[in-house]
Design brief:
By secondary structure, the protein is of the alpha/beta class. It has 13 helices and 13 strands. The protein has helices at 12-22, 47-59, 72-83, 101-115, 129-138, 156-165, 188-200, 223-231, 265-279, 286-295, 298-325, 350-360, 380-391, and strands at residues 29-30, 94-100, 120-125, 141-146, 171-175, 204-209, 235-240, 252-258, 327-328, 331-332, 343-345, 362-363, 369-371. The strands form 4 sheets. Strands 2-8-7-6-5-3-4 form a 7-stranded mixed beta sheet, sandwiched between helices. The chain has a two-stranded parallel ribbon with strand order 1-12. Strand 5 (171-175), helix 7 (188-200) and strand 6 form a beta-alpha-beta unit. The protein is globular, with a radius of gyration of 21 Å. The chain starts with 11 loop residues before the first helix and ends with a helix. The relative contact order is 0.17. It binds (2S)-2-hydroxybutanedioic acid. The site of (2S)-2-hydroxybutanedioic acid has 6 residues, from loops.
């Protein structure tokens, strides 16, 4: 029976890891999958996480099951960072659960959307490829609209018409900050308008918050999520600690559910628990337990926020340097200076993407998305020269 299956291509983003590793050139540069790198090109474990892990080894006295919701101490400790310290549960209308990374959270959010018989999921494109892959795997109908306008801002006109065209109850999958892959975020004024449009058209927001803290700061990056959550009756929020705590392979995330009336919450949450049970039963514990220990300790929290500041500052410097290069060959790198997070898109043709790989050993997604954190002061001039060479 298994021969009835068809060969599948490797995931294009994850395949880049192997392509880069197999390249023998010492000067190769990896701008592929979204992991942060230091100025030395490493992705170290956060100091605050290392300290929490040591504590965990000493104090954890059991690894017995916790249930489909995972570590609820982690979920509550994280909530004020996502929803604000004043009223993180919105008067008992929000509850969360732990998930295997941001992907697990999105998978669960979209499975909830399907179970709730939502008709369609709308998303701005380009988007993170796994958004569409998860929708397709769940058999959800997808509708797209343009995300980035020609002037380098978010295409609000396209979003407005998509929201006007959508049916009541349709879901809108929106990136909370650090848009993947364009780095082009909604402004605070855009979020104000989006909130009004969601309300007026009775749409269900599904908010993907995978990069909080990597744009302008933990508080600043939460503006859109908080603005929407304070106004709408219902929302699903997919959070990830994989980047802002550097936990990538430990798969640490949370799904938060906002309902209109707090007495509906147990019923809604019971659906998420049942879906989690059928998908992965219970989430992996280690990363979430380490985050909880960081957030329960004021010194470790301060250390973590400090480490996050350092990451953001380094990416700001890289972006400033790219922007200063301005017109480079046939492309303009100026807009990269004002974009947010790990990613930006440079409008390379497919042939230019290949030439960057074969002639210069520089690896990034076929869409032209680069991970700016893969650039260092040691390799950035090489990168700019290569861009000039292949696009000139
Ligand atoms: C990325 O877009 O590179 C990251 O979100 C990692 C992933 O899982 O694709």
């Amino acid at each position: 029976m298994l021969t009835n299956l068809q060969q599948q291509p490797a995931d294009a983003l994850l395949a880049l890891i192997k392509l880069h590793n197999a390249d023998p050139r010492a000067t190769k540069i990896d701008l592929g999958v979204g992991v942060y790198r230091t100025g030395q090109g490493d992705t170290p474990v956060f100091g605050a996480i290392k300290a929490a892990e040591r504590k965990l080894v000493e104090t954890q006295d059991s690894k017995a099951y916790l249930g489909p919701e995972g570590d609820m101490g982690f979920v509550s400790a994280l909530a004020p960072y996502v929803f604000g310290k004043d009223n993180p549960t919105q008067d008992g209308r929000i509850e969360g659960m732990q998930t295997p990374g941001g992907t697990g959270s999105l998978r669960l959010a979209l499975a909830m959307v399907k179970a709730a018989k939502v008709k369609r999921v709308w998303m701005g494109t380009p988007s993170w490829p796994n958004h569409a892959q998860i929708c397709a795997d769940l058999g959800l109908e997808m509708k797209t609209f343009n995300h980035a306008a020609a002037d380098g801002t978010a295409d609000m006109a396209a979003l407005r018409s998509a929201m006007a065209e959508a049916d009541e109850g349709d879901a809108f999958l929106l990136h909370g900050c650090c848009h993947n892959p364009t780095g082009i975020d909604y402004t605070n004024a855009d979020w104000d308008e989006i909130t009004d449009l969601l309300l007026a058209n009775k749409l269900l927001p599904v908010l993907d918050l995978a990069y909080q803290g990597l744009g302008s700061g933990m508080e600043e990056d939460a503006y859109g999520i908080r603005r929407v959550v304070r106004a709408v009756p219902e929302a699903l929020i997919a959070q990830s600690c994989d980047k802002n705590f550097g936990l990538y392979r430990d798969r640490t995330g949370a799904l938060y559910m906002l309902v209109a009336e707090k007495d509906q919450l147990p019923m809604v949450v019971s659906n998420a628990h049942a879906l989690a049970r059928a998908n992965w039963s219970q989430p992996p514990d280690h990363g979430a337990a380490a985050v909880r220990l960081v957030l329960e300790d004021a010194d470790l929290t301060a250390q973590w926020l400090d480490e996050l500041d350092t990451m953001r500052e380094r990416m700001r410097q890289v972006r400033a340097r790219l922007a200063a290069a301005g017109k480079t060959g046939g492309v303009d790198l100026t807009p990269l200076g004002s974009q947010h997070g790990l990613f930006s898109i440079i409008p390379f043709t497919p042939d230019q993407v290949q030439a960057m790989r074969s002639q210069h050993g520089i690896y990034f997604a076929g869409s032209g998305r680069i991970n700016v954190a893969g650039l260092t002061m040691a390799n950035i001039d090489q990168f700019i020269a290569a861009v000039a060479d292949v696009t000139g």
